[in-house]
Amino acid sequence: MILTPELVTALRRQAGMTQGELAHAVGVSQSYVARIESGTLDPKLSVANKILEVLSEHSGPVLGDVMTADPTTVDARDSVSSVVLIMQERAFSQLPVVRSGRVIGIITELGIVRNLRRNLAQVSVQAIMDPIAPPMFDESTPLSFILPLFESFQAVLVQKQGRLIGVVTRADAMKSAH
After folding, report:
1. Beta strands in the chain (DSSP E)
2. Quick one: pLDDT at residue 74?
3. Which residue has the higher pLDDT, 130 or 10?
4. CA-to-CA distance for 117 and 85, rounded, in angstroms?
5. Which of 46, 59, 151, 160 makes an SS bond possible with 144, Cβ 3.0 to 4.6 Å?
6. Is pLDDT at 177 greater than 80 in this prediction?
7. DSSP calls for 116-151
8. Single pTM value for the model
9. Cα 124 to the center of its chain, rounded Å
């Protein structure tokens, strides 16, 4: 995870902490935290890790708690028509696309609808997939850390030792509210 000034601010606020409280917990000054959040200071790796550690203690469930395990994936070489059947049968709006076991993109309902004039039995998933896959995080990442990403992505992927093990959708995140 890249620790941006905006992310530190968002995570600190989600944790209900002031800059001073975070600074005290991390062992730095309040002005140090303020400079990180304003983007005028790039913290040392040890400080960045301590910030993440402190904020994760205040952040509730982790992705492994709310993810849908063993997500369905499709191969980049599959035909789009075969993927349409899977999506309809299982009520999915999107599926991760893999090649050689590695996530390389995502196929969505919108991508398919945009190509309905074509013979989808002859079109490969790779030809119409979105090459920008959802972000991938470790299963121990706090759910609160990824919530801002749902502004841009419908889901995030969950990995363990580089292998896809789950997916967290907006609906999964909402389930954690009760």
Report:
1. 68-69, 74-75, 94-99, 102-108, 136-138, 155-160, 163-169
2. 96
3. 130
4. 17
5. 59
6. no
7. TTS-TTSSBHHHHSBSSPPPEEETTSBHHHHGGGGG
8. 0.65
9. 25
